[in-house]
Fold this sequence. Notes:
Elements: E1 2-9, H1 30-40, E2 44-53, E3 56-57, H2 58-66, E4 70-78, E5 86-93, E6 98-104, E7 112-113, E8 120-121, E9 127-132, E10 137-141, H3 156-172, E11 177-182, H4 188-191, H5 193-198, E12 202-203, E13 218-222, E14 226-234, E15 242-249
Parallel strand pairs: 1-2, 10-11
Antiparallel strand pairs: 1-15, 2-3, 2-5, 4-5, 6-9, 7-8, 9-10, 11-13, 12-13, 14-15
Helix pairs in contact: 1-2
Amino acid sequence: MELRVATWNIAAAHKMLSADRFDYSLHQDVAYFAGQLHRLDPDVICLQESEFNTDDSLTHRFAGELGMPYFSETPGCPSHISNGYQLTTAIIAKKPFTNARHVLLPQPTFELRFKHSDEAVQPYNRYMQLVTFDNFTVGTLHTEPLGAFGRSYEHGEGQHLAHSIDELLVQELETPIIVAADFNMVALVKTLPRFITECRLQEALPSEPTKPQGSHPDHILFSPEWQLLQSGIEHTQSDHYLCWADLELASSR
């Protein structure tokens, strides 16, 4: 079985106006984001920073626009883009899945202050979203963006947080699996060593930036039951690029 998986931090479907942090367009452009996904035609879409409130679900609207009727999402922290909304992690699929669930990620135990404003913020609830297909699992997550607070998952207190996340992922995930997500980490072998080693995960994406600023926080990881056919990073008008991979489950060959 072949599967095209996409992952995209969509910033609530607001285009980026410049490379400056939080320089988003005033209005959502669902047609643009849905059009990019429609052109790519993935079987499974992993979204970060979708939005939800009791009257509206951006993920639901995307699913309708794309004709992909199956989706699951988990609201987390308040949106930094739209008042009255929560950011969500979400998975949209062409085919039905089971056992949709979410797992709360470890929170920082240290102070967070935006490096551009010195404003202190409380750690927010952030989740890993998981769904199960017939014989494999797909997951997505969106960790705390420590870079926005002048911190790193590779050093100091951030490294301790990465260790806690690493332990949780090993505990919660079983192979065969695909994890397509905005990890807010670059060197996953260093920040999540147990997860990468014990699940024998490989990176599907090329070694290129997944953000206009030149960093690579977005990853598509796959366990050995999968074979990578091809992958790519689409340079979209957004603060994270649209990333994708074509994978084949080994038992289906």
